TrEMBL record:
It holds the Pfam family FGGY_C. It comes from Luteimonas aestuarii. It comes from the Bacteria. This is Xylulose kinase. Belongs to the FGGY kinase family. The gene is xylB.
Length: 500
């Protein structure tokens, strides 16, 4: 029996699932919440030690007999977080996260040093947007000089958990591409980007080696003992949560499109070559399976529905009733959901906007609908850029916490006018991590299984949750979506740097 563990270090919680690959069954799963340290300057941070404690708390909940059967594991993590370590491997400061917009000025400075956004994209494939790791380095230099002085290694959140598990330092190409320092066309660090980020030192010395996606490491004996795992357990390279969700939702072949409704909203497609947007309309990331993963990320997804629900004292689970009680378009109410600044469109200093309030739509239900529609339209805006570039998709595979909502699943089908599938394993990123561990383990044992064949055998969809677009509702969403775009166009200048 081959038993794997998949660990997903998301923004709001750590989730772990244990998967029996022979019976194709999740044997157990656990999650532990994480706190976010938020500042009014847009900073969003977490203590890496909290990730470790949450991961341990999850394993503690599993039966010791089950833990003892885990042959391999893999870690998925929220992308872009900056984990600074000293030469002894100690964390020097809280990790600045993917949704931290306090480094907006540093993003501009890095791109200015390269001659602007277009030249930055020409250098390495991506602009340096708020949230990407690169801008957190000059911010640390300016605001945490002690940490900068002692900085020896930079890791991403999932790399840090890998370091805790194995005592080894590495990065893999998927999550590394979210630093902004990786030239995604050559899959090597870009000397231009590293120099533009910090002209005073060779940042390449702080970056661990990049390893191939099917590498396996030994678990450190102390970690095995702490988690109750066998000392023979292997640790696969892992990846960013979107890269792992790509595996867990079957997005490993051309033409596949997956969407995650989590703290962030993401939309990503598989590509067998780098797909760079000259205008930076999407993130040209690498996948964690040897390919590429053009991706759209919105910073405000379930975080918005959750805040509106909390404001009116109901749970997101109860929110579906409010969606059913209101018509598409929320009777003219539009929400631009940029509560924490936004990446798509690039408005890190953006704020939420409610437009079109009138006596008929000023109700908790309309506001909840406007929040869900706003979060969905924001992803549709990114999708339109994919389509304008010639990408074509026939279906969407949905994952993330928001996919638990039947109303949201149907809204996605109607707004995108595409059928929606939902995998049986709802935790796409954690499941993808377990599958990556299985793949690397099988390859280490001589198998020539491809990720496509493995995913084909293990990722199945739940017919009860599938949705097809309803023509009338798809039509009913067209004008409200146009209205969303008009409001967006109108307010964008207000949120540009330098505006009052
Ligand atoms: N039934 C539901 N309806 C709407 N949102 C939901 C529902 N169930 C969970 N969520 C939302 O899913 C989010 C958690 O999703 P998840 O993908 O685990 O996030 P992350 O990986 O960013 O931590 C929470 O914000 C929660 O509000
Ligand atoms: O920044 C991005 C992708 O570029 C986010 O998708 C993060 O990876 C956080 O993911 P969740 O916690 O929302 O799953």
């Amino acid at each position: 029996m081959t038993v794997l563990a998949g660990i997903d270090a998301g923004t709001q919680s750590i989730k772990v699932l244990v998967y029996d690959a022979d019976r194709r069954e999740v044997l157990d799963s656990a999650s532990a919440p994480l706190d976010l340290i938020s500042g009014e300057d847009g900073s969003r941070e977490q203590h890496p030690s909290d990730w470790v404690h949450a991961m341990e708390a999850c394993f503690d909940r599993f039966d010791p007999g089950l833990r003892a059967r885990i042959a391999a594991l893999s870690v998925s993590g929220q992308q872009h977080g900056f984990v600074p370590l000293d030469a002894a491997g100690r964390v020097l400061a809280p990790a600045k996260l993917w949704n931290d917009t306090s480094t907006t000025a540093e993003c501009s400075r890095i791109m200015d040093a390269l001659g602007g956004a277009t030249k930055t994209i020409a250098s390495a494939g991506n602009p340096i947007l708020a949230g990407y790791t690169a801008s957190k380095l000059p911010w640390t230099k300016a605001h945490r000089p002690d940490a900068y002085a002692k900085l020896a290694t930079i890791l991403l959140p999932h790399d840090y958990l890998n370091f805790v598990l194995t005592g080894e330092l590495w990065m893999e190409h998927g999550d590394a591409s979210g630093t902004g320092w990786l030239d995604v066309r050559t899959r090597t660090w870009s000397p231009d980007l590293l120099r533009a980020t910090d002209a005073d030192r060779d940042l390449g010395d702080c970056l661990p080696p990049l390893v191939a996606h099917d590498t396996l490491f030994d678990i450190a004996p102390a970690s095995a003992a702490r988690l109750g795992l066998p000392t023979t357990a292997k640790v696969a390279v892992g990846g960013g949560d979107n890269m792992m969700a790509a595996i867990g939702t079957g997005c490993v072949g051309e033409g596949r499109l997956s969407m995650s409704l989590g703290t962030s909203g993401t939309l990503f497609a598989h590509a067998s070559r780098p797909i760079v947007s000259d205008d930076g309309d999407w993130a040209a990331f690498c996948s964690s399976t040897g390919g590429w993963l053009p991706l759209i990320c919105t910073m405000n997804c379930t975080v918005v529905t959750e805040q509106v629900a909390r404001l009116f004292g109901f749970s997101t689970r109860e929110g579906d009733a409010h969606i059913h009680a209101t018509p598409p378009g929320a009777q003219g109410l539009t929400m631009l959901p940029f509560l924490g600044g936004e990446r798509t469109p690039d408005l890190p200093l953006g704020k939420g906007v409610l437009a079109g309030l009138d006596p008929h739509n000023m109700s908790p239900a309309h506001l909840y609908r406007a929040a869900m529609e706003g979060a969905t339209y924001a992803l549709r805006y990114g999708f339109d850029a994919f389509v304008a570039a010639g990408m074509r998709f026939e279906r969407i595979v949905l994952t993330g916490g928001g996919a638990n909502s039947a109303a949201w699943r149907q809204m996605v089908a109607d707004v995108f006018d595409l059928p929606v599938d939902v995998p049986r394993q709802a935790e796409g990123a954690a499941f993808g991590a377990a599958l990556q561990a299985l793949w690397a383990l099988e390859r280490s044992q001589g198998s020539d299984a491809t990720i496509e064949s493995l995913v084909g055998a293990h990722v199945t969809t739940d017919a009860r949750q599938a949705c097809t677009p309803d023509p009338a509702r798809a039509e009913a969403y067209r004008a409200p979506y146009r209205r969303y775009l008009q409001h967006l166009e109108a307010v964008m200048p207000l949120f540009r740097p330098g505006s009052p």
